[in-house]
Write a structure and sequence with these properties.
CATH superfamily: Ribonucleotide Reductase, subunit A
Structural class: mainly alpha
Distance between the termini: 40 Å
Number of helices: 11
């Protein structure tokens, strides 16, 4: 059962003077992706149809993901009363489709799918943590704190099922690393880019994946602090089967921060 609802958010504390218009654009995009959690539930239901132990958790996970989208969308409508959340969501669904007819995981195995889900929850938990720490708007801070906590818990859920699936699928660390890296690279695919486009551009605009992915990234990368990256690296290493703390975490944290800062400067200079 969800630990919070839309009614538990202190919406009356909203402060329009503290809305960052750059963050607002990304929140609108994130609202569409999160609200689309039902499609991910359909996909996981097909992939894990024979795994009743996992399926018991999927419906709750979907409910919480959709709630994240509804909370972010409600906040965005407070920040921009002219924004039509429902229309933007329909536009997103019309233009972006998940492989809902898949009968098997696109990762090659159920363990591979769990590994990919761990990477996704790592990304979302660190992103909403970064948003929480970056914003001064009290309602958005509260919403992001709630979502980040949910996403950390979702990571633990997928990690526990990953360990169980590994007893059968026997994925090596190298294979898990490849799946994890592949899923990280997919963060630059059409989902976020099209969500940014659908949420922020006029109906006569022309979609350009690279352009809108860069627009999203330019606003997201500067939000991350060392603590966010360090925790994300620990979660990734744990899912791969490596020591989450130690020299490797320190190396990857430094590398990750360098990547984020360098690309944030590059995108800002290019006017993405």
């Amino acid at each position: 059962m969800a630990s919070w609802t839309l009614e538990t958010i202190d919406w009356d504390r909203f402060d329009a003077s503290k809305v960052d218009p750059e963050i607002l654009r990304n929140i609108k995009a994130a609202a569409l992706v999160e609200r689309n959690g039902g499609d991910y539930g359909t996909y996981l239901g097909r992939v894990f149809a024979d795994d009743l132990q996992f399926m018991d958790s999927v419906n709750t996970w979907v409910t919480e993901e959709v709630q994240h989208g509804m909370a972010l969308g409600r906040w965005a409508m407070l920040a921009d009363p002219a924004w039509d959340f429902d229309a933007a969501f329909q536009r997103f669904r019309d233009g972006y489709k998940l492989p809902l007819d898949a009968q098997h995981s696109v990762r090659g195995s159920q363990a591979g799918e769990m590994m990919a889900r761990c990477i996704v929850e790592t990304g979302t938990s660190s992103y909403y943590s970064a948003l929480k720490d970056a914003t001064d708007e009290p309602v958005l801070k509260q919403v992001c704190a709630r979502i980040a906590a949910d996403e950390f818990r979702h990571y633990k859920l997928f990690y526990e099922h990953l360990r169980r699936c590994l007893q059968r699928d026997r994925l090596s660390r190298w294979r898990r690393l490849r799946i994890g890296w592949g899923r990280l690279k997919e963060s630059e695919d059409d989902e976020l880019a099209y969500a940014y486009f659908a949420a922020n551009e006029s109906v006569d605009a022309v979609y350009d994946r690279k352009r809108y992915m860069q627009a999203y990234a330019r606003r997201a990368y500067p939000l991350y602090r060392r603590s966010h990256v360090q925790r994300a690296m620990a979660m990734i290493l744990k899912a791969i089967g490596l020591q989450p703390q130690g020299w490797l975490n320190r190396l990857l944290t430094r590398t990750g921060l360098w990547f984020l800062r360098r690309n944030a400067l590059r995108l800002a200079a290019s006017g993405a």
